Amino acid sequence: MTEQRVVIGVDSSTQSTKALAVDIDTGAVLGEGRAPHTVSTGAGRESDPEQWWRAFEEAAVRTGWAERAAAVSIAGQQHGLVTLDAAGAPVRPALLWNDVRSAPQAAELRAALGPAELVHRTGSLPTAAFTAPKWAWLRANEPAAADRVAAVRLPHDFLTERLTGEAVTDRGDASGTGWWGPDGYDKDVLDRIGLDPALLPQVLAPGAPAGAVRPGTALREGTPVAAGTGDNMAAALGLGLRPGQPVLSLGTSGTVYAVGRTRPVDPSGTVAGFADALGGWLPLACTLNCTLAVDRFAALLGRGREEVEDGGSAVVLPYLDGERTPDLPAASGLVHGLRHDTTPGQLLQAAYDGAAHALLTALDDVLRAGGEDPAGDEPLLLIGGGARGRAWQRTVLRLSGRAVRVPDAQELVALGAAAQAAALLTGEPADAVARRWRTAEGPVLEPVPRDTDALERIGDTLRRAGALQGAPAEDR
Length: 476
Ligand SMILES: Nc1ncnc2c1ncn2[C@@H]1O[C@H](COP(=O)(O)OP(=O)(O)O)[C@@H](O)[C@H]1O
Ligand SMILES: O=C(CO)[C@@H](O)[C@H](O)COP(=O)(O)O
Description:
This protein is an alpha+beta fold. 34% of the residues lie in helices and 19% in strands. It is built from 15 helices and 24 strands. The protein has a seven-stranded mixed beta sheet with strand order 18-19-17-16-22-23-24, sandwiched between helices. A five-stranded mixed beta sheet has the order 3-2-1-5-15. β10 (180-181) and β11 (184-185) form a beta hairpin. The radius of gyration is 21 Å and the shape is globular. The protein starts with 5 loop residues before the first strand and ends in a 12-residue tail after the last helix. The model has no long low-confidence stretch (mean pLDDT 96). Bound molecules: adenosine-5'-diphosphate and 5-O-phosphono-D-xylulose (5SP). 5-O-phosphono-D-xylulose (5SP) binds at residues 13-14, 77-79, 97, 129, 176, 230-232, 251-253, 255, 286.
């Protein structure tokens, strides 16, 4: 009998860490572990990297395979600024992707280097979400803390380094910093924000190993560790995505993306021109308000998530955390179009519609940015915590006009990390591993006519709400 080989894939996302133990040959999930994270509320969004590390070890142990896994890989939420001192301890909590306090620094960077130049260099127009403005924010607001920083990491790099002792990252996650381009770290951007490149990790070539598990962790010493990547890049691997297959992920963030063959360039800033984990591209649009915002509306209305009703003319812009797409960091939630006969269920449906609007109107641009035809008939792959919600599924069908496929496999980010770990051992590309595991299979929901009235109503409200939502005068 041949020995069963199992890898562990990890998703260190905003709300929790999820770990899966996966059989390399069959893709069967043999064990699962989960541990929650704490995110600060109020003005900023911060988490303690030490809690991520504890959650990682706990989730990995809960899979039941921590001491037997043949390889490991860690994917993580993108963009977060992790600052470490000379001993490798966090200088302060990490500034997360959905912390909009860095919006002024993003605007300064855009003004200093120019949108076209920045997009040409780094692939994206930085918003508050990107790591570069976060570093600039730290220098401006907490200079003493910035002075103590001996290493700057992203969430997944921090965990990989704790596990292996190696200061490495991958091109996918690096592409969300705002200081990386295809030729490496961008000296002009780093100079502008006052960040010494010596503080940054080495960007590994696609498929290269990060190292091996060091002594003293919950995992077996010497276990090979893959490079890991950003969570959206990992989900693309986990679905075995081919160019032109669009994905919509419904989690704390809403994201819409597709693998592209050409380097994406969108000076409007709607589509970020991320790199994928393999050597290609991952044009992506991201919102700050997705499942949590809709759940908050349900709670305010005293209704369950699925208690929605059709009809009515209410519009909800559920920008409870400010917003990134559209780029309105100072925005807040807005309800418009209420009438005497508006029901709570209609208002809740309007919150779903408002959360899905920017993602589904960006979908065509995402496909175009990657050199793909938006008129293609590939079903939209629906993933993330919200994908199993009936109300979410119906909203996406109505507002996309596309067929939607909901993969049976869950935790596609962790599965993508597992595929990366397996690829280290088998020599296959990680996306081919996931295709062999058939992770993208699942029921296809038939398309319905696109609800263009609802989309137009939301678009119109958004345009007219510009001043209230803090849009710059030239965009109103
Ligand atoms: N059946 C469901 N319907 C709608 N939303 C759901 C459902 N199950 C989970 N969620 C939402 O999914 C979110 C978690 O999704 P997940 O993708 O794990 O988030 P993240 O990766 O950002 O931590 C939670 O905000 C929760 O409200
Ligand atoms: O900022 C982005 C993408 O650019 C987010 O998608 C983060 O990567 C967080 O992801 P989740 O924790 O919501 O999955």
